[in-house]
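Technical annex B. To support the medicinal chemistry partners, we prepared a structural model of the target in complex with beta-D-mannopyranose, based solely on the information shown next.
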Amino acid sequence: MNRIKMTGQVVKNMPWQEKPKNLAGAPVWRYSDNPVINRNPIKGVSRIFNSAVIPYNDEFVGVFRGEKLNGIPHIYLGRSGDGINWVFQENEILFENEDGKPFMPLYAYDPRVVKIEDTYYIMWCQDFYGPSIGLAKTTDFEKFVRLENPFIPFNRNAVLFPRKINGMYKMLSRPSDTGHTPFGDIFISESPDLVYWGRHRHVMGTSKYWWESLKIGSGAAPIETSEGWLLFYHGVCHTCSGYVYSMGGAILDLENPSVVKYRCRNFLLTPEEWYEERGFVPNVCFPCATVHDSETGRIAVYYGAADTYVALAFTNLDEIVEYIKEHSSVTESDTEIGTR
Ligand code: BMA
């Protein structure tokens, strides 16, 4: 039985795997048949990676970053009965504006999907006179209505919280630049209506631990637990041969999520397998979603691997929270409210 509780659905129809005996570090282990999504998954799409999955009815839907043959990414929809085998729609998702007119982003990448009450929201990075955040809603995964862009450029890695907190929608994001941003902290903003955003706060920045010393960005939508919001994020370090993306974990205060309660000084997952180390961009583990079973505490993390594949890793709530707490180092910039 789980000591720690988490909010969310009961998810049985996924091939959960048990923890192997010989784990060296964090209690996070890869799916034995990774990558879950391989090259050329859809006609006209060379790679799918950095994508998000959510339970929907008795199956799963996913919003996938699909790179077309001209190199431009768009978001594709997929459906799956087990979270592993996917059937994709052949064309990218067609977004419309609130008047029902076509309203397509010029490009769209790194989508996340979050359910709040009865609506599913998709966030991604798109051109808004420079890279910034796009936002859309759907209730049926057939019709996708774009909302106002939440932030001015430049910004990436936005993730909504799965419920309002003190009556407000909350969104994490990572202000950036026009290129391969050599800096970056996670901020949080709030909105009463998903149109007007304000009360921006700093959540956390890079750390002195080398795997996340260059920049960080939020990954999967935070999971509500009795210990706080469990956040899987990415941390980046700069090496002689480029950036290396690993997965980290932190726990944010439930009522006041700009306050970091615990933050793991060790990475939870770092590029070690061929599909993480070799691809279009080598050495990338980029978490974008979790599927979790509130009954057993099992958590599956979907992550992009080497900007080429989608891979899956497992953990469980009690062990991951315990590991994060046991290896936690927080600084004043983490624990303060984040305003200056
Ligand atoms: C970031 C984003 C991600 C990508 C990563 C590594 O800036 O563009 O989509 O996975 O770089 O290339």
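Notes passed to the chemistry partners:
The two ends are 43 Å apart (CA to CA).
The longest strand covers residues 45-56.
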